[in-house]
Amino acid sequence: MSSLTIFSAIIVFLGALALSAVLVRVSITIAHRYEILDAPDGSRKLQVYAIPKLGGVAIAVAFTGCSMILLAPSEHPVVITEALGILLPAIAAAAVGYVDDKRGLFPSVRLALQAAIGLAIAFALRDTVNITGSDLLDAALVVLWVMMLINGVNLLDNSDGLAGATVLVSSLIAAAVAAVCGQIVIAALGLALAGTAAGFLVLNWNPARVYMGDSGAYFLGTMLAALTLQLKIAYADLPWTLLIPILVASLPLVDTSYVVISRLRRGVHPFTAGRDHLSHRLQHAGMGVRGSVLALESLVLVTGALAFVLTLAAR
Fold first, then answer.
1. Is the peptide bond before 270 cis (omega within 30 degrees of 0)?
2. Residue 122 structural domain
3. pLDDT in tens, 167-223
4. What pTM was computed for the model?
5. Which of 162, 185, 187, 303 is a Cys-bridge partner for 250, taking CB atoms 3.0 to 4.6 Å apart?
């Protein structure tokens, strides 16, 4: 893809949306047939009935298919190699999440596998990411960033539509930043990720008919981390441009920090499941599920707009 017009951007987004929506519907049928469902428990899972949770697999398949279509015409092997270098770890992340959904992994095993995924991405982007000038320190920062967004998106998957809407908005912002910086492939992949999230959101908006599960959250978190790492403007000479990826992925970072700090202050283990996220606080204040999601996405839009302004200022 040598250029990205408004028309082609719309086509990429809508194509990903359509494929994702179709595959998510298929996943619902399969989940019901094989009883791959998330049942209410009366405490943390408050849905009225069991919900299919294969949506994450559909998300991974849909985005992978869109990516292959986008990259197939490329005449630059390096572009394809780098794209596969982040796509394959994301697929591995989805597989780890699926196993975690089915059997439940020990936190230490889960974190070790996430770190391995981060290392794979650090290796794939070793010629792209240059934050500190030290290869070892840059690799460590990449691993930390990937793990933070994997767990951040996973923790956001606590209310109908929240994780999907967050990835949708953040990916659109990342695509806009990449387009301004002339990173056409990154912009196209951002649009594809946004469209994939939107297709899932059609059936995950409150009241949800499908959940993404850990497989979807791990996949989306990995891809969002990889895309934001490749925004070249973040490594310009101006130090404050390093804020751009953080602003693009603001909500997963803010919510995770809030939950971890509040639990540690209360003497609760950070990996304990609970209804103490920002969305839950807003819901307890009377906003409802949809209202809380829209309020938090407004925050993402504000920080995303600031990221875009900083991008324009740094050019």
1. no
2. 6-233
3. 999 999 999 999 999 899 899 999 999 999 999 999 999 999 999 999 999 999 999
4. 0.94
5. 303
